[in-house]
Amino acid sequence: MSGYRDYLYPADHPRITDVKGLDAYEYVPFAEQHHFTGGLIEGWRKLYDEPYVGVTADGAIIPGLFPLRRPDVADAAPVDAMVAAAERLFETLDVEQRERISYPIDSLEWRHWANPEFLQFDTGLRLEFQPEPVREAFLGLVEASLSERGATDVRTMMRINGFLGDVVGLPGILNEYSYNVAVFGEPSLTAPWGWQLFGHHCAVNCLVVDGQMVVSPVFLGAEPNEIDEGPYAGTVAFTERIELGRRIMAELSDEQRRVAVTSKSLTEGLPEGRIHPGDERHLGGAFQDNRVIPIEGVRIAEASEAAQEAVWALVADFVSILPEGPARLRMREIREHLADTWFSWMGGTGPDDPYYCRVQNPVVIVELDHHCGVFLSNETPQPFHIHTVMRTPNGNDYGHALVRQALGG
What we know:
Blueprint: H1 14-17, H2 24-33, H3 37-45, H4 79-91, H5 95-101, E1 102-103, E2 125-126, H6 132-145, H7 148-168, E3 179-184, E4 193-199, E5 202-209, E6 212-222, H8 239-251, H9 254-260, E7 261-263, E8 298-299, H10 305-319, H11 324-335, E9 342-347, E10 355-361, E11 364-370, E12 386-391, H12 400-406
Parallel strand pairs: 1-3, 7-9
Antiparallel strand pairs: 2-3, 3-4, 4-5, 5-6, 6-12, 8-9, 9-10, 10-11, 11-12
Helix pairs in contact: 2-3, 4-6, 8-10, 10-11
């Protein structure tokens, strides 16, 4: 199978030369006018400011899924460490920076995250234009909030983005710090507050309230999914997650696999509108906070115990971004909905075939998709370009349901 380097554009190709030397802000007008990225922006613009409802399976929110309650100490979010890290961050900022990075807890800016390389919203501070102490302080907040694995995954996506920029010669729009960051609410041990990081192939929204934690929506992706030279050589992303998806298919019966596979092709014969020009097969990407995502595929409760455990293993790999206690609570919450958990698949089932899969129930949606090239030239999905998304449907992305209860709404 071809590696990603077989799909590098020549240095004199317009895909590279048209934007070479531009920085993030200089790239904005180009992206808005370009036939591809401009079309994405225009399509998403219609969704920017819709009143928040939440992702649903049929357009109706299922009530009562996310009660506000203080967890046991062993399962609580590391709020003490998070508040301390936030305070260290604010100590590095001047008045203007503090003002720019800070938003009310119920701010619409939560929902303006996006995963492309171009800026649609310049929320908060842009890390690449901040001094190193500010960058490191915000990443310290990320590390204090997430699991060690989760923080490593975030840094891996950022480093792969920087590697891609170096490989294709576009470090001005693709670099390790091409990310916007913001803090929502006042850091507190009990009141709701959180933070956001977003940019190319990495978007994380983290909310805590009195020990409860929601990390969602989360977008992690990579093009390519490996770093094969330089200081981070040997870094590889998503290998285990991809194999966990294949394991589910291996554990299903022949008939269950037939039902789970909604399309044998990733690109042909799909219903009109099923492939988005930017998200491809993803349904829960940027600006899809109110998307109706009907259930499809196979009901996991009807599968073998081994297949069920394979599904939970894939979901747990997404949930591993949370610290140990909150991750344990989250998986308990997710597994309680076994009867309403569905698994679907698109694409081939061979050991190297690119594919799309989704696990969906009332409290979680996780998606994994292989994509065509954006800064590489592959015109069909390839294993080295991966997007993954995690959503909390029925109104609790951004911890919205918890915030509403905490504020008495």
